Amino acid sequence: MPEYKVYYAKHPTFQKFDHINRDLVLGELTHAHIKTVDLPNLSEVYRRFQVLPPEFGVPTVWKPENAVADNRVMDLKGVRHTSMSVGDCVLDSEADVLYECASVGWREVE
Fold it and tell me: For 56-79, b where at least 16 C-beta lie within 10 A, e where not — what string?
């Protein structure tokens, strides 16, 4: 299964960035590395990084028992949102391709 590294925007605008720079994202200047996950595809990465009530039945990376630790990591890294949003990025480690979460789907970052 592919490995994905998830980077959340430190100062999200929740809209498409025209100026995303791969080096700035991976250097954690504009984004913060939140988690590395093994999932089948980008759609599943997006789905698992949503905060949804348990009654939705969607497994997420955000577990209630880890909430305090997860929130502390997010605070230390300067991130203020938990659900993946437009402008957040995902690195496909095997293909070495960085993607930006778009309003619909994904955009490859050059």
Answer: eeeeebbeeeeeeebeeebeebeb
What DSSP string runs through 32-61?
EEEEEEE-SSHHHHHHHTS---GGG----S
pLDDT at 3: 97
* pLDDT value at residue 70: 81
pLDDT in tens, 37-49: 999 999 999 999 9
Is 80 exceeded by the pLDDT of residue 105? yes
Read out DSSP for the chain? --EEEEEEESS--SS--S---HHHHHTTSSEEEEEEEE-SSHHHHHHHTS---GGG----S--GGGHHHHHHHHHHTT----S--TT-EEEETTTTEEEEE-SSSEEEE-
